C-alpha cells in the first residue's frame, strides 16, 4: 500500500534519502558501502545497482535503445541521450569557474580547463612534448611520421598541410603576399618579410 500512499518510512542513515520498501533501502546502501554485487558475465565489471548492470550490458550487445527524437541518433545509455539532447536545446549547464565560459558537456568543460591550468596530458611518445588537446598531439605526430601531405604535381611530401600549401605556389605561380611600398609580390610570407628590410634600411 505504501507505493500508492507515497509513504516512505525507511530512511538512509548516511544521506537521508527515504524509501517505501526496506528492500529498496538495502539496495541503496550499496552506493555508500561500495559493495558491487551485480557482476557483468562478459567482462566481470561490478555494479552497486542491478539497473546499472542492465545499462552496461548494452556495451557488449551493441543495443542502442535510446533514440534522439530530433535527429534519430541512438545511444546505449539514457544518460548519454540526455547529454546529447543539449546539442539541440542549446543548453550549456557547465560553467568555467575562472572565465565563466559555458559548455553543453562536462567533458568539454574539462578540456577547456586545461587552458587555465596549463595541463598537457597528451604526450608524444617520440619526443615527450605535451599537448592539452588530443587533436594537437595528432597534428604534431605528423612531424615524426612519413610526411602524410603529398604534392600531386612533383610528388614531394610534407609533414604539415600548411607547408604543402606554400609549396604548391611554386607550381601555380601564385604570389598572394604583396609589398605595401613597391607592390612586389611573393609566394611566401617569409620572403616578403625579408624584402621589407630593403625599405626599412632605406629610411
From TrEMBL:
GO molecular function, one term: RNA polymerase II transcription regulatory region sequence-specific DNA binding
Subcellular location, principal: nucleus
Domain C2H2-type: from-to ranges: 10-37, 38-65, 66-93, 94-121, 122-149, 149-176, 177-203
Signal peptide bounds: none
Subcellular compartments: Nucleus
Keywords from the UniProt entry: DNA-binding, Metal-binding, Nucleus, Repeat, Transcription, Transcription regulation, Zinc, Zinc-finger
Database matches in SMART domains: ZnF_C2H2
Pfam family, one: zf-C2H2
Top-level taxon of the source organism: Eukaryota
Cellular-component GO terms for this entry: nucleus
InterPro entries: C2H2-ZF_Transcription_Reg (IPR050717), Znf_C2H2_sf (IPR036236), Znf_C2H2_type (IPR013087)
Name this polypeptide is given: Gastrula zinc finger protein XlCGF57.1-like
Species the sequence originates in: Fundulus heteroclitus (Killifish)
